[in-house]
Amino acid sequence: MTRSPRSRTSAVFAATALLACATPLLGAASANATTAGGCQSATVQYRIVDADGRPVGADWTSQGGFHQWDSAPGTVEVRLAPGQTVGDGCKYPVSLAEYTTEGSNWYTSGRQTLVDHATVYLTAADVADTDSGKHTWQKLTVKTPDCYGQIDLYGDDIIYDGKTEDGHGPAPYQPDNVVTPYHLIAAWNGGDKPCTPDQPDSPTPTPSESTPDTPSTPPTSQPPAQETTPPATPSTPSTATTPPTTPDVPPMESTPPATPTPSPSDSTPPLAETGSSAPVGLIAGGAAAVIALGAGAIYTTRRTRRS
């Protein structure tokens, strides 16, 4: 028996309906949310300037390491090295921190105590170019230590002062090899005297307040003092080298929005979504209706062929 045009049309309609319903479901199952753009690490350059903004010593550099200061660097200018492509919205935190220490270099620095801290955020506007002579670069300024101290230039906005709340981290401590700050770019240390806290002046006792004379020999009941040997002092520092440095600074993980976040109805969705935010329920309902319609068409086609 030859199929009628009506039966062929019904069959084609049913197959098309099934294909149309399966395609969005397969796409919804395999799609992943995507976001546009992305920020990569960037290389920082720095230089030390005086109170008038004139460079002190070497000009722009990315050289790391620890440097002994002739005079403590109170102000440091920073920028992003030339030849880099920095996307719009990418930010790179750079901080300068000053610590008092127990010695004039890393190996004798002991426990460090934060005194001052400053942070700037570099963007695409801070990339060096051919017209850099007319550019005003961002500056970091901290207090100048007047005793043993260390100044760290590093690539994040964490305050390494030993506190535990958000935005803080462990303070540097050489004997325990606590090599903070992280993302250290360069460091300077020095000083010529210990950082001792101010001691209040103690009153000089008057003759009436003086201690009475004591016997020159101890009582017979008191045992003689035993000689004690002081603990041996390590001949080598606990850390073989100074902490590592790098001029490459990671971008901020997230930037707080300047304006309130728009509601889902006002925002542009990602290129593809899955999960609870995707309209899988609506797709499934529509697919079920199309499947039912296709099944009915197939049933009608078979009835027509039998008749």
From TrEMBL:
Residues 189-279 are annotated as: Disordered. The chain crosses the membrane at residues 278-299. Keywords: Cell wall, Membrane, Peptidoglycan-anchor, Secreted, Signal, Transmembrane, Transmembrane helix. Residues 223-243 have a biased composition (Low complexity). Residues 244-263 have a biased composition (Pro residues). Residues 1-33 form the signal peptide. Residues 271-307 form the Gram-positive cocci surface proteins LPxTG domain. It comes from the Bacteria. This is Gram-positive cocci surface proteins LPxTG domain-containing protein.
